[in-house]
Design a protein that fits this description.
heterodimer, A: mainly alpha, 7 helices, elongated, B: two-stranded antiparallel ribbon
C-alpha cells in the first residue's frame, strides 16, 4: 500500500503561493462572479429594453437597506478579526468574533425578512412587474448565499475546536476561506444596494 | 505533510465505502464512465424511436410499440408531444448526462491524477459529492418521463416563451440542470486545483501530456460558462413558479387569449444566457476528445506529437475565444448587423486554433511507424470526422449563409459530426486504450475492429445525408416530414438514415460483448502494455489506492518516443536515466 499523500493541504504551494483550499475557493468565487454577473447583465438588458423603469428609492425602503449595508460591512470586519485572532493563537477571541459575525448575518436576514413582509403586505410580488421580479430574484439569491455563510460559519464555531487542536494551520486556512466567501457575499450586496435601491 | 485520513485504512474499508461512496478518484472515474456510457445508450435509444417516426410517419412501431403508455404512443403510433419529449431529452441526455460525464468525469477523474503523478484529486470528498450530485440530476431527468404530461418538450435549448408555457416536465428539466451545473462546478474546481497544485516534481506545465492541458482548459470553461445558465435556469424557474416575466414579452397572445402575466421581459435574454454556456459547452465536448486522440496518436505512431507547444497555445486560445462567439447561434433573432458582424468575426477567429490542433494531429502521423490497433483506428478516424464537422460549421458561422441553413438538418449533421463520430469515437478510442490500465486486461482486437469498421460506415450513413436534407431546407423539428412539400423529395434519405441508425446500434453489440467479456477473458497485461511514456503507465495495472509504488518525479516531456541513441523507442517521463 502506498504512503502517498495529497500535498499542500496546510502549506502553500511554492509556485502558486496558495494552499489547495484557497485556490479552490478563489475558483469557486470566480464562478460566483459569473453567476451574479449574468443576473446583473439580465437586469441591465431588461431595464434598457423598456422605456419606463421605476426608481428603486420610490418603491424600496432605502433606510432599512442602508442599515443592512452597515450590518454586512461590520460583519466582514468581525470575520477578519476572527481569522486574525486565530493567527494570534487566541481561540477564545476567534469564537467571540465568529459568533458576532453570525449574529450580524442573522440580523441582516431579519431586516430583509421585514422588508419582504412589507412588500407582500402591499401585494408587491415577483409577478407584479419586472422590477420586483429582478429585485426578489437578486436579493433572494443573495439571501441564500447569506444563509450558506451562516451555516458554514456556525459549523466552524461549534465543531472547530477539535481540528484547531490537531491541525491548527489547516483550520486557520479554512477560516480564511470562509472569510473570502463572506467578503464576497458582502461585496455582492455592495453592488446590489445602489443598483436596486438608489438607481 | 500529514497522512490524509481517507488514505490510511483503505484496505479495511467496507464494500460500500470502497466501491459506492468511494473517495478514490479511480473508483469515482469508473462510476462516472459507466453511468455516462449507460446514459449514452439511453439517449441513443430515444433517438432510435424518433428515427422510426421520421422514416415511417404514422405507422405503428412494430414489436415494442404497444409497450408505451397511452400518452406516448396510441396503437404504437407516436404522438407529437412524445416526439418532442424524445427530441428534447435526447439532446439533454447526450450532452449533459452522457458525453461530458464520460469525457470529463470519467476519463478526467481517472487519468488526470495518474498523468500528473498525484495520489488522488485535491479534494476527494468534493469529488465524491460531484458524482452523486450528477447522479441525482440524472435521476430527476429520468423521472420526468413519468410525470403525467411527460418530460421536457421544448428542445434541449428550452427557448421561452414556449418553455415557460410547457408542462411540468420543463420544471424537472430546470431542477435537473441545477444539479448538473452544481456537479460540474464542484468537478471543475477540483480539476483546476489538482492540476495547478499536485503535479509531480519536475512536471512543469510544458511537460504536461496534452490530455491534461485539454482537461485544464475544459475545467475553466465549465467553471465560468455554466453559472450564466444557472442564472438563466433560476430566471426561468421564477417565470414558471413565481409568475415573473423575465422572458415573457408584453402582450403575448396564446391560443387567442392574452396571457395574464405582467410582461416586459425579453425571450432573447434567455438565448444569450443559454448560448453563453452552450457554445463553450461545445468545446467542453471536443477538447477532452482532442486530448485523448493526442495521447493515442503519439503512442501508436511511436513519435512525438507534431507541434506540441502550438497545440497548447491553441487550446488556451480556444478557451478564451469560446466566450465571445455565443451569438453566432442567434443570427436570426434580429439582433442587428453590427452584432452579427462581431460574432461572425470571432467565430472565424476561433476556427484558426481548432484547425491548428487538427493539423498538428494529422501531421503527427507523418513518418510514424503506425500500429493499427483498435484505439488507434478510432483515433485516426476522429481526424477526418471532426474535420468534416468543423468545416461544415463555417457556413453556419457566416450570417449570410446561416439564414438559409439555420435550424435545418444541416445543423444537426454538422453538430453530430463534431460530437458523434468526433468526440464519441475519441471516447471509444480512450476506452480501448486505457482499459488495460483500469482492469489489468486487454480488450479483444477482433471484436474491437468489427466494432470500429461497422460503426464508421453506419455513422456516416446516418449523418452525411442530413447535410443534403438541410440544404433542401428541411427543418430539424418536423414531426411528420411527409406533410411538407419541400421535404418530400428527401424522404427516402430519412428511411436510409433510420436504417443506418439501427444498424449502428447493432454495431455496438461487439463493443458491449468485448467490454464485459474482456473483464473476465481479456489477456492479462503488466503496467505498460502499449510501451507508452506518460506517468499513468508507471503505476501498476490496475493502480492501487494512492496510485504509485513510490512518489514519481518527472525528467522530460510527455512524448519522448524514438529518441535517437536510446536502446528502446520510448523513454518514460519518470525514468531518471536511459532505459
Amino acid at each position: 500500500m502506498s504512503t502517498a499523500v495529497i500535498r499542500y493541504i496546510d502549506k502553500p504551494h511554492p509556485v502558486t503561493g496558495v494552499t489547495n483550499a484557497k485556490l479552490g475557493t478563489w475558483c469557486f468565487l470566480a464562478s460566483e462572479v459569473m453567476l451574479f454577473g449574468a443576473l446583473f447583465s439580465a437586469y441591465v438588458l431588461l431595464r434598457t429594453g423598456v422605456s419606463e423603469w421605476p426608481h428603486g428609492s420610490q418603491f424600496l425602503n432605502v433606510p432599512l437597506a442602508t442599515l443592512n449595508t452597515l450590518i454586512l460591512i461590520t460583519s466582514s470586519v468581525t470575520m477578519v478579526m476572527s481569522w486574525a485572532s486565530l493567527m494570534l493563537k487566541q481561540f477564545g477571541k476567534y469564537r467571540l468574533y465568529l459568533a458576532i459575525t453570525i449574529l450580524l448575518a442573522l440580523a441582516f436576514l431579519v431586516v430583509k425578512g421585514f422588508e419582504y413582509g412589507h412588500k407582500f403586505e402591499h401585494h408587491h410580488f415577483p409577478s407584479t412587474n419586472t422590477f420586483y421580479a429582478i429585485y426578489f430574484t437578486l436579493t433572494g439569491l443573495h439571501g441564500l448565499h447569506v444563509i450558506g455563510g451562516v451555516v458554514v460559519n456556525a459549523y466552524f464555531l461549534f465543531f472547530g475546536k477539535r481540528m484547531w487542536e490537531t491541525h491548527p494551520e489547516q483550520f486557520a486556512g479554512r477560516i480564511e476561506c470562509a472569510g473570502l466567501y463572506w467578503h464576497f457575499v458582502d461585496l455582492v450586496w455592495i453592488f446590489l444596494f445602489p443598483v436596486l435601491y438608489l438607481l | 505533510m500529514k497522512e490524509h485520513s481517507s488514505h490510511s485504512h483503505s484496505a479495511s474499508l467496507p464494500f460500500w465505502r470502497k466501491y459506492i461512496f468511494s473517495l478514490d478518484h479511480k473508483v469515482i472515474g469508473v462510476q462516472y464512465a459507466v453511468t455516462g456510457l449507460l446514459f449514452l445508450l439511453f439517449g441513443f435509444t430515444l433517438i432510435m424511436l424518433i428515427r422510426w417516426q421520421l422514416a415511417y410517419p404514422g405507422q405503428p412501431l412494430p414489436v415494442i410499440g404497444h409497450l408505451f403508455s397511452e400518452k406516448m404512443m396510441v396503437g404504437g403510433i407516436m404522438l407529437p408531444e412524445f416526439y418532442n419529449q424524445l427530441g428534447a431529452m435526447h439532446g439533454t441526455i447526450m450532452v449533459f448526462l452522457g458525453v461530458v460525464p464520460l469525457a470529463v468525469g470519467g476519463f478526467g477523474n481517472y487519468l488526470v491524477p495518474l498523468q500528473i503523478g498525484a495520489p488522488d484529486m485535491a479534494f476527494p470528498k468534493l469529488n465524491m459529492m460531484s458524482y452523486w450530485v450528477y447522479f441525482m440530476g440524472g435521476l430527476i431527468m429520468l423521472a420526468s418521463f413519468f410525470l403525467p404530461e411527460g418530460a421536457a418538450q421544448s428542445g434541449w435549448t428550452s427557448y421561452p416563451p414556449l418553455a415557460n408555457l410547457a408542462s411540468s416536465g420543463q420544471t424537472f428539466w430546470l431542477l435537473g440542470m441545477v444539479f448538473l451545473i452544481t456537479s460540474s462546478l464542484l468537478g471543475s474546481v477540483n480539476f483546476i486545483v489538482t492540476i495547478a497544485q499536485l503535479r509531480a516534481d519536475g512536471l512543469s506545465f510544458f511537460r504536461l501530456p496534452f490530455f491534461v492541458w485539454a482537461q485544464f482548459i475544459t475545467s475553466f470553461l465549465l467553471l465560468l460558462a455554466f453559472p450564466p445558465l444557472e442564472a438563466a435556469g433560476v430566471l426561468q424557474l421564477m417565470d414558471r413558479l413565481a409568475g415573473t416575466s423575465f422572458f415573457m414579452p408584453s402582450g403575448l397572445v396564446v391560443a387567442g387569449e392574452q396571457l395574464a402575466v405582467s410582461g416586459g421581459g425579453n425571450p432573447v435574454l434567455w438565448q444569450h444566457l443559454f448560448w453563453f454556456l452552450a457554445h463553450p459547452e461545445v468545446y467542453v465536448l471536443i477538447l477532452p476528445a482532442m486530448g485523448i486522440v493526442a495521447e493515442i496518436l503519439a503512442c501508436n505512431t511511436r513519435k512525438p506529437i507534431y507541434g506540441y507547444r502550438s497545440m497548447v497555445y491553441s487550446v488556451v486560445a480556444i478557451g478564451f475565444l469560446s466566450f465571445v462567439v455565443w451569438a453566432h447561434h442567434m443570427f436570426l433573432t434580429g439582433m442587428g448587423t453590427k452584432m452579427s458582424g462581431f460574432f461572425q468575426i470571432t467565430t472565424m477567429m476561433i476556427s484558426v486554433p481548432s484547425v491548428i490542433i487538427l493539423t498538428a494531429l494529422a501531421l503527427s502521423l507523418w513518418g510514424g511507424s503506425i500500429r493499427f490497433n483498435t484505439p488507434m483506428l478510432f483515433a485516426i478516424a476522429f481526424l477526418p470526422m471532426f474535420g468534416i464537422g468543423g468545416l461544415t460549421g463555417l457556413p453556419l458561422g457566416l450570417a449570410a449563409s446561416d439564414v438559409h441553413l439555420h435550424d435545418t438538418y444541416y445543423v444537426i449533421g454538422h453538430f453530430h459530426y463534431v460530437v458523434a463520430p468526433g468526440t464519441i469515437f475519441a471516447l471509444f478510442a480512450g476506452v480501448y486504450h486505457w482499459f488495460p490500465k483500469v482492469t489489468g486486461r486487454k480488450m479483444s482486437e477482433v471484436l474491437g475492429k468489427i466494432h470500429f469498421f461497422f460503426s464508421l460506415i453506419f455513422i456516416n450513413g446516418v449523418f452525411m445525408p442530413m447535410f443534403l436534407m438541410g440544404l433542401a431546407g428541411v427543418s430539424r423539428r418536423l414531426y411528420d416530414p411527409t406533410q411538407y412539400a419541400h421535404a418530400g423529395s428527401t424522404q427516402p434519405l430519412n428511411v436510409f438514415v433510420s436504417i443506418c441508425a439501427w444498424l449502428l446500434a447493432l454495431a455496438q453489440i461487439p463493443f458491449v460483448l468485448n467490454f464485459f467479456g474482456s473483464l473476465i477473458f481479456g489477456k492479462k497485461v503488466d503496467r505498460n502494455p502499449w510501451e507508452a511514456t506518460t506517468l499513468e503507465w508507471a503505476a501498476p495495472s490496475p493502480p492501487p489506492h494512492g496510485n504509485f509504488d513510490e512518489v514519481p518525479a518527472v525528467y522530460r516531456g510527455p512524448y519522448e518516443y524514438s529518441v535517437p541513441g536510446q536502446a528502446r523507442d520510448f523513454w518514460p517521463q519518470h525514468m531518471a536515466k536511459e532505459n
